[in-house]
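Entry:
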Amino acid sequence: MKETGFEDCTMAEDGPNDNPTNELEDSLQNSPIAKCQIPGLEYVLFVKGSGPHSIDYGVAPGAPPKEVIVSRKCAEAVLRGAQVFVPGVMACSAHVEKGDAVAVSVAIEQHGPDGGWAIGMTRGTVLQGLQTDPYYSERYGLYIGQGITKMSRAGIFRVSEGIAVDMNNRVFKLPSFHDVLEGEIFLQNLPSIVAAHALDPQKGERILDMCAAPGGKTTAIAILMKDEGEIVAADRSHNKVLDIQKLAAEMSLTCITTYKLDALKAVRRRNESNDNVTVQSSEPLRFHEEKTFSTVQVLNPEKVRNEIVSNEKENERTYVSKADIRKSNRRMRNGPGRNQCLGGRVENSKGFDPDSFDRVLLDAPCSALGLRPRLFAGEETVGSLRNHAKYQRRMFDQAVKLVRPGGVIVYSTCTINPGENEALVRYALDTYKFLSLAQQHPRIGGPGLIGGYEFPDGYVEEWLRPGEEELVQRFDPSSPLDTIGFFIAKFVVGPKNI
């Protein structure tokens, strides 16, 4: 069974299902939870949230409430129904004990003196509560709810996992499914489920999920295959690979094999063996041995940029954005964080042989402009959006090499930027003549964008041509369907010698 989070759409079937989109738009008007009736998606439940709601904190003048400030990503999860987990807590009032009522607000990135964006506080900051508190402006007007602490302030900043605040009064309300039918229910957005179905996996096939974390689509594919065959789930993050392993184990899926692998290096070089190296560590995970940005001590941003330019000349497949530079600056200021210190067992892969997979899902890293709720998008510029597109093309090149003739590639993103969606399809069809767009089932999203756009600097971005728009699915957050922004394209691989 699967569900959609922050989705308020389903359908009721009245005879032949010729227009599932209209059915989805109409069926959750009066019901917060409904079963999907689209053929093939009967196991999906739709859960509808509500809000915004007014919250009365009941605080007397001059007696500010005890407060907790969470990171933006934590806040976005809370707005989707999650509790406040320990890693998401950035700051807390002094003398908070287990069982205290606290006001929860979100720290939004602000412009930094170096021109970048940062939160402006380190994890563990003490909140004073009054307007004289230097961090007052960080949270003023950005309350997301109220809850009861599950541990003391000291406990929150001492442990690495667990629930810090049990949210009992939210600005946006959505049922929490934490610890509910674990292994039987998984919260997921509708377009992600559709992407797994578009891949149309078959029993006994060998399938690659190139950027698999956190594993939702991987497990959906495994379920569609009846857990028969092999799914290779790869991600470049050690701890994200552990998350995929954990999810697969919770759902008792045995056909999933996980690897730590950069998608830009997914094709094995001819002079390298395909032996996989097992890494087990209780110490912080070290970064790649190659000379990558992650190993640079960021003391001088300009020096870092120069080293990156030199680094890219040595290895053209290394992509580093300005956001990565700012992220490393924050890492140097705030410490390595939990993503580098969970430990555990993963297997490193040196890549896979060409034509060795029946199907490949490339759910590419993107600008994420379609995610909801989205509390901050200030780091994205026209230049960064173009860089995302370049990065995705290089990943797609790897996917094409890995799929056998007669196989299938499904490309998806969670952004509404046509440069990362329709422009990628144009690149794929123009570059690889043996690729062709294929029909997708089920088809719930809208058509793609035709034409293109010329930027002020003269750069021309080409999108779809007439007749191709109905072969892709574009999910628009502003449409009546009311999903996250998403894009899906399905390619069939013909003979590669043409």
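The chain has eleven helices and 25 strands.
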